[in-house]
């Protein structure tokens, strides 16, 4: 690669940062373009389950290993309406949050100091010379992508500097698209990929551990805890608290509660309209939910959820809601391999499988292999698409089980197993 910057990453969230860290550590100059106007970011305290690819990424690329970032979770339990354990398994897991990982990755990428990470990694001159230049630019809105003479031209608007109309462009040898589940670039390149509403929404929130009753804490026991009713289920687990603290009492209990709401219904339109009257397609941000919408949901919790779960709903002061949508797997590579699509921009999953960060980590680890000459572009494409396709179908299968019952689950499961068989067959024929 040549030129400066040699690599541009579009999207400065978790997926973009993971790709950026890998590229920087390989010695390439990398610029991350983020539309958000500030380096101060809040991920709505959303919980993240770190899985096998996330662990591998952290082991290889997190240089803050002496600073723990996750709450240990001993396993999963499913409770019935009488709070009896009716299922689950014991398997150690780690529960992090969007905020914790964002600031940790920023510390690793460009040395950002924050209340979450006040001591970024330090390198010797020899180590630092092996790294490429890392630049994180906020307030950059990408408007178009072109491929000219072997280079990718990124046309953007500077939202912070309106000089010359705020327009400009960057020429790059490689562009990584990591602008999330509602990816603008994916829609520019593949306008035929449409979002399809799945028929239900996720209500999310957190409660400070010290504000939860001892009875509820004893029942949850730091485990991932599930409870299902007809066409509804809730999952909760404990995540780091403010500034990433892991101190008991200062941690947060994070939950996701799924309920069915018909498409094109007045109920859905009302739920997705914020307190200022703006209707959102995907997420009503934290603090923006209409008061009467949340009061209605709290009343429902009192009627259908066991007391410990309903307690969390009633003690939530900053809820938010997301509509669950499906979209097909994006084509992962464009412009002779000079533009790659990763993370949720490649394929967003329904949240049941908790694999969004895991996918981004896998994409970064495979990108590292490809840029190091240990993997071909074709092999990279095959592996990222197989993971995206199978995980997407698995997330649909789980959602079908909980929200629509056995028949929907049967058809989704059959499709998932067939896709798995075809994936293994492709790997066999391609060696």
From TrEMBL:
SUPFAM superfamilies: FAD-linked reductases, C-terminal domain (SSF54373), FAD/NAD(P)-binding domain (SSF51905). InterPro entries: DHP_3-monooxygenase (IPR053212), DhpH_subs-bd (IPR054707), FAD/NAD-bd_sf (IPR036188). Coiled coil: none annotated. Residues 197-326 form the 2,6-dihydroxypyridine 3-monooxygenase substrate binding domain. PANTHER family: MONOOXYGENASE-LIKE, OS06G0597600 PROTEIN. This is 2,6-dihydroxypyridine 3-monooxygenase substrate binding domain-containing protein.
């Amino acid at each position: 690669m040549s030129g400066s910057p040699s690599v541009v990453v579009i999207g400065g969230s978790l997926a973009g940062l993971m790709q950026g860290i890998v590229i920087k550590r390989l010695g390439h100059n990398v610029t991350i373009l983020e539309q958000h106007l500030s380096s101060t970011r809040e991920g709505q305290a959303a919980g993240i389950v770190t899985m096998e690819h996330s662990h591998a990424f952290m082991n290889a690329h997190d240089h803050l290993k002496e600073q723990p970032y996750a709450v240990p979770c001993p396993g999963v339990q499913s409770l019935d309406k009488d709070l009896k354990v009716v299922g689950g398994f014991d398997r150690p897991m780690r529960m992090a949050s969007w905020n914790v990982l964002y600031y940790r990755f920023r510390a690793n990428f460009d040395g950002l100091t924050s209340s979450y990470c006040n001591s970024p990694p330090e390198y010797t001159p020899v180590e630092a010379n092996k790294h490429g230049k890392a630049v994180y630019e906020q307030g950059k809105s990408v408007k178009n992508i072109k491929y000219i003479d072997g280079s990718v031209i990124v046309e953007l608007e500077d939202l912070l500097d309106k000089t010359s109309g705020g327009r400009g462009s960057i020429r790059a040898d490689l562009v990584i698209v990591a602008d999330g589940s509602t990816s603008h670039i994916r829609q520019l390149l593949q306008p035929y990929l449409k979002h399809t509403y799945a028929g239900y929404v996720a209500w999310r929130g957190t409660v400070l551990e010290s504000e939860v009753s001892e009875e509820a804490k004893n029942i949850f026991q730091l485990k991932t805890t599930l409870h299902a009713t007809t066409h509804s289920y809730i999952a909760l687990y404990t995540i780091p608290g403010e500034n990433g603290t892991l101190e008991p009492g200062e941690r947060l209990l994070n939950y996701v509660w799924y309920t069915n709401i018909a498409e094109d219904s007045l109920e859905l339109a009302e739920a997705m309209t914020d307190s200022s009257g703006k209707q959102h397609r995907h997420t009503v941000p934290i603090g923006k939910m209409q008061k009467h919408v949340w009061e209605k949901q709290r009343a429902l919790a009192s009627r259908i959820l066991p007391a410990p779960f309903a307690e969390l709903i009633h003690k939530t002061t900053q809820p938010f809601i997301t509509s669950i949508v499906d979209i097909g797997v994006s084509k992962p590579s464009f412009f002779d391999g000079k533009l790659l699509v990763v993370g949720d921009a490649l394929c967003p999953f329904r949240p049941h499988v908790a694999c969004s960060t895991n996918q981004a980590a896998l994409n970064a680890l495979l990108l590292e292999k490809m840029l190091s000459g240990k993997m071909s572009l074709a092999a990279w494409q095959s592996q990222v698409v197989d993971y995206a396709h199978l995980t997407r179908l698995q997330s649909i299968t789980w959602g079908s089980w909980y929200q629509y019952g056995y028949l929907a689950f049967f058809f989704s499961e059959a499709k998932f197993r067939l896709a798995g068989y075809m994936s293994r067959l492709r790997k066999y024929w391609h060696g």
